[in-house]
UniProtKB/TrEMBL annotation:
One of its GO terms (molecular function) is phosphopantetheine binding. Residues 12-89 form the Carrier domain. Coiled coil: none annotated. It holds the Pfam family PP-binding. The keyword Phosphoprotein applies. The keyword RNA-binding does not apply. It comes from the Bacteria. This is Act minimal PKS acyl carrier protein. GO terms for biological process: antibiotic biosynthetic process.
Length: 96
């Protein structure tokens, strides 16, 4: 009898992402991460590529997924990063 495996898919939310941004690199004075930041470029929020790499590492550890470095370069806003991560999780769940 074949065995089936189930994979749990947990969606990364904006709340999760802003928590990780604060934990990894803090919050720039004058920037309200609790505001409408989904389409605001990370650079405008005060986060450089090093800060984003730290956040990506944390996402990979917490969610157990792999995110290609070249894909991260194109994720210039929190919304784009959420879409990338959540699409990657769905793809990995489908492959399991």
């Amino acid at each position: 009898m074949p065995t089936t495996s189930t994979t749990t898919h947990v969606t990364l939310t904006l709340t999760d992402l802003t928590r990780m941004l604060r934990e990894s690199a803090g919050e720039e004075e004058g920037v309200d991460l609790d505001g409408d930041v989904i389409d605001t470029p990370f650079m405008d929020l005060g986060y450089d590529s090093l800060a984003l790499l730290q956040v990506i590492g944390q996402i990979q550890r917490e969610y157990g997924i792999e995110i290609p470095d070249d894909a991260v370069v194109d994720a210039e806003t929190p919304g784009a990063l959420l879409a990338l991560v959540n699409a990657g999780q769905a793809g990995q769940a489908d492959a399991a």
